[in-house]
Amino acid sequence: MEASQRATSTYLIDQVIPMLPHLLSNNLCSLCPKEDRLAVSIVWKMNDKAEILDQWVGRTLIHSRAKLSYRIAQEILDNPDRLWTGEDLKTSDEMVEPIKVGLNALFRLTKCLTA
Asked: Is the pLDDT of residue 72 over 70?
């Protein structure tokens, strides 16, 4: 009932008002690092112009490696030469480079889609 009244989460400068009750939004339905989550996913294969080449929809298991704040994600994009550590991103050192590469790839796609 509460979720249908809100329809979406609201993001303010210093807080989030979640669409779902706290127990769901921060625990059961949240992509917490190092925890498996069952999901229904849409997987797109896209080219560098963000054109969809292939798609698949199905049940998946998501295992998140890190939980980035918007601020940290933006800092990674704004400071490509900074040497980030696992401690900075609250993950293992071996995951830092894949996170940076993935975040930059998503940012490039976003620029294509909003151009």
From this structure: yes
Distance CA 26, CA 32 (A): 8
Nearest to 37 by CA among 19, 69, 60: 60
Give the residue with greater pLDDT, 24 vs 40.
40
Residues 6+ apart with CB under 8 A from 53: 44, 45, 46, 47
Give the span between the Cα atoms of 89 and 73, in whole angstroms.
9
Q: Report the relative pairing of strands 10-11 and 16-17 from DSSP bridges.
A: antiparallel
What proportions of the chain, in percent to the nearest 5, are helix, strand and coil? Answer: 40, 25, 35
H helix intervals, the chain: 2-6, 22-23, 70-78, 86-89, 96-114
pLDDT of 1 strictly over 60:
no
Asked whether 55 and 42 are in contact (CB, 8 A), the reply is yes
Give the model's pLDDT for residue 59: 97
- CA gap 27, 20 in Å, rounded: 11
Whole-number mean pLDDT of the chain? 87
